Amino acid sequence: MRKMLVKAAAFGLLSATIGVASADPSADKAAFQKYFQDKFPNTEFQDFANGVYSIDAASRAQWEEIEEFPPYEIAIEEGESLYNKPFKNGKTYSDCLPNKGLGIYQDYPKYDDKQGKVVTIELLINQCREANGEKPLKYKKGKMAALSSYLAYTARDKEFNIEIQNDAAKAAYENGKQFFYARRGQLNMACAHCHVDNSGKRIRADLLSPALGHVTAFPVYRSKWGAMGTFHRRVGGCNKQVRAKPFKAQSEEYRNLQYFLSYMSNGVKANGPGVRK
Fold first, then answer.
1. How far apart are CA 217 and CA 90, in angstroms?
2. What is the mean pLDDT of residues 74-99?
3. Could you read off the pLDDT of 165-174 as tens digits, one per residue?
4. Span 50-58, average pLDDT
5. Are residues 213 and 233 in the same domain?
6. pLDDT digits (tens, 9 = 90+) for 207-259
7. Domain of 198: which CATH number?
8. What's the domain range around 78?
9. pLDDT digits (tens, 9 = 90+) for 87-103
10. Percent of the chain scoring above 70 in pLDDT
């Protein structure tokens, strides 16, 4: 596979050649987490779940006011109602999701050996629906974001615990890592340029959040959207911002990226659903 150089070499994340043989997820994670803890020494490790609000006092004050009456509460209620609503065959999500889907958000995405791919909560939801004769939901927002919000809420305060159990899982992890550090689009930028190299700095009026803990608060209500959205909705927006054509939600590229970032956030407690600008 092609060679990549990344500016993150200073903290041990340089991978001269992308491939299973070079993959050392445990070492990557230790270096990744140390980098952000060193860069933001006044931020408690668990607070990285709160994104930019963990590193900027002014932003945090505004966020704490919003959290008094969080806009995602409606999504949790809608998601719970959808979760309990029987399918046409009389079954519900609790009949086909692992552990009924409750309290498992921190363990996903997960590499599924039988399917030979990374599986997200949202993918599980649609697989459950289709197995029971229901049409799949759209992946970015709406009912999917509501269902995902409810399932995320049942896992709050549980530490992310993503496993990379074999070479096939390592290959998916390495693919997600490559995506994170690869330049793309007309602006020739990588995810890491904003959320590693320039985390804590401003781009116009916005403060760039650290990549550590990025995935732990999804789905999120964004002020820009005026609605809830999944992680893949947000990543698609990032791709558009660097003038790159986004991949489809739940594409292999985005699932593997989420797998990589979730593993990097192991130990951070789930805090979804959340609120972001």
1. 32
2. 98
3. 999 999 999 9
4. 95
5. yes
6. 999 999 999 999 999 999 999 999 999 999 999 999 999 999 999 999 999 99
7. 1.10.760.10
8. 73-153
9. 999 999 999 999 999 99
10. 92
Residue 28 amino acid letter? D
How confident is the model at residue 204, as a pLDDT? 81
Pair type for strands 220-222 and 274-276 = parallel
In a domain, 2, yes or no: no
Is 191 catalytic? The answer is no
Shared-domain flag, residues 145 and 174: no
Same domain for 178 and 65: yes
Which pLDDT does position 206 carry in this prediction? 86
Which own/partner pairs from 164-171 qualify as long-range (CB within 8 Å, at least 24 positions apart)? 164/25, 164/111, 164/263, 165/111, 165/113, 166/111, 166/113, 167/20, 168/111, 168/113, 168/116, 169/111, 170/20, 170/23, 170/25, 171/20, 171/23
Total tally of structural domains belonging to the chain:
2
Read out DSSP for 138-199? PSSSHHHHHHHHHHHHTTTTPBP-----SHHHHHHHHHHHHHHH--BTTTTB-HHIIIIITT
Same domain, 98 and 165: no
